[in-house]
Design a protein that fits this description.
The chain is 42% helix and 28% strand. It is α+β, with helices and mostly antiparallel strands.
Length: 173
């Protein structure tokens, strides 16, 4: 393996022994696994701003329509709402691509972690044991757990992603 295994966008939570989320230890990001450990990189500031703007456009399109129906009753306002919706939905392919695994080298990963983009960084030696995610079923499911001496890292992964992360760490599932 040339570099860390890129596993895609995940939801991750660093929890204490009581199961409470550690302050600043939860969020979404790209998961990377290697013999050195697990790293979850937060989206860049630009990616985060664009995502918030697009979500704002969707929300504003709804608000504009409701306000128009109640007070304004102007046809032009509907066109504004349609334009806002179009911006949101036309950006969907790019937003989906951002969720796919993005391969980077070990040096690039280390540089990103040093620059403050690492949401969670766990050395492989600190991982005491692993627990696979709960099987897919209706309702809430339990995430994969990477147990640490002082808590755990819980990540929502598919079975394939979990097996790949454990293999990249050099362990057996």
């Amino acid at each position: 393996m040339n570099g860390p295994a890129a596993l895609g966008m995940v939801l991750a939570m660093l929890v204490d022994p009581k199961g409470k989320v550690v302050r600043g230890g939860a969020g979404k990001g790209q998961l990377y696994a290697s013999r050195d450990g697990l790293v979850v990189l937060k989206p860049t500031a630009t990616q985060e701003i664009v995502q918030r703007l697009l979500n704002g456009a969707l929300f504003m399109s709804i608000v504009v329509v409701v306000v128009n129906v109640v007070t304004l009753k102007e046809p032009m306002v509907i066109w504004i709402a349609v334009a806002l919706q179009a911006v949101y939905w036309l950006s969907l392919p790019a937003r989906r691509r951002a969720m796919e695994p993005q391969a980077i080298s070990a040096d690039e990963l280390a540089a990103a972690a040093r620059s403050g983009r690492a949401l969670v960084q766990i050395p492989s030696g600190a991982i005491v044991s692993t627990a696979a995610p709960a099987p897919v079923r209706a309702g809430f499911r339990k995430p994969a757990r990477f147990v640490l001496p002082d808590g755990a890292l819980e990540i929502y992964l598919s079975d394939d992603q979990f097996r790949e992360a454990v293999a990249a760490l050099g362990r057996r599932a």
